[in-house]
């Protein structure tokens, strides 16, 4: 059996191996999941919550081990391992513990007046077997979240974690086992793109994919062949708009963190900073000074980690090289191609003189590259921010909250923050997702659970009447139907006449 090698991105040392899942075993995994689903779907939500509550307790008990595993597998600072990966999942579980029963409860809905005497309901039912394919940049958060939402909704889940961070995938598999989930309710398949493609071909009942837009489109094409519903949480090229009346020091600090947390390897990373011309020069000076003050040496309180995936480093190198060749200025940092001896820990870069004809502005860089562009006015800022095939997240910075909200309403993005960055995804009460090439669907909040269900609409009649007013025969029913519609939906409602017309229809139905 082949094994996935885990290499610490900072040191370059091999830190472990994880056995891959044989390709030929995927059919059996689905068969086991479908059998387990027959029982799991009939468990109460309270019973399902017991398992994720235990999961939460185990994660907390193993917190420091988890921090180390995520830190070593990804190269991100330990503080980011706990705040971005672990805390967000603990909070998501707490949200489900409090709200899942209410979210999935069958609820009564309104019934139109034409259907007097009937009652209407909406109920939620699990889809079956959910395939979750998760990425390497937040290997714990972006895998755990869809899995726990899927199983709380009554589905069984097959998780394919990233092969780039295999130790995190192995740890998650261990956590599910320790939490005592029934056999085959959650299964983990370890491996690369080959096993991912095989799992998609096995026709799951739902696919939840997080990753690049290129791969997401391939998955969507395959899913479409069998009309498999799919959620895609894809890339971004998030804009940050800084107006002259913003709290500049806060905006600079936000820009640094929003651009460089997880070394810029975040789908909501601030990759385009638009600064009003009157403050552009002092802003970039402060940005460079702030960058130079960040702590980079290896320690538990380091500010910056490293790149995680060697292929992504090549993308960063290409984008920077192309931008400089087209006139961009390397305002801070050094070209990553000149730092090959530093391995995956390249020096963060600030680029000025960039424009929308450059790859570094149009394509997702996913690395420690900060691009700063001046703008003249509000209209231009909105136009520049929306000039992208992506639309995941964005931010607006101004002390004039009304202006900031006005601009936020005009930005083409799934989420917008005012005087903050990125953190909308960490609020379990807010739906999260993108538009355009940033994806399809939403997760978190109530929709994060109901996405994994099909909704059933139910209308109930007592069954005592011999016939309905809209049934055969139609003879003599047209005039009272016209009176009914005119009386109820016309310019001036006439309830008495409407009821009179309805009574006529009832008599003609006997």
UniProtKB/TrEMBL annotation:
Residues 4-458 form the Aldehyde dehydrogenase domain. SUPFAM superfamilies: ALDH-like. It comes from the Bacteria. CDD domains: ALDH_DDALDH (cd07099). InterPro entries: Ald_DH/histidinol_DH, Ald_DH_C, Ald_DH_CS_GLU, Ald_DH_N, Aldehyde_DH_dom, Aldehyde_DH_NAD(P). PROSITE patterns: ALDEHYDE_DEHYDR_GLU. Keywords: Oxidoreductase. The active site is at 233. Belongs to the aldehyde dehydrogenase family. This is Aldehyde dehydrogenase.
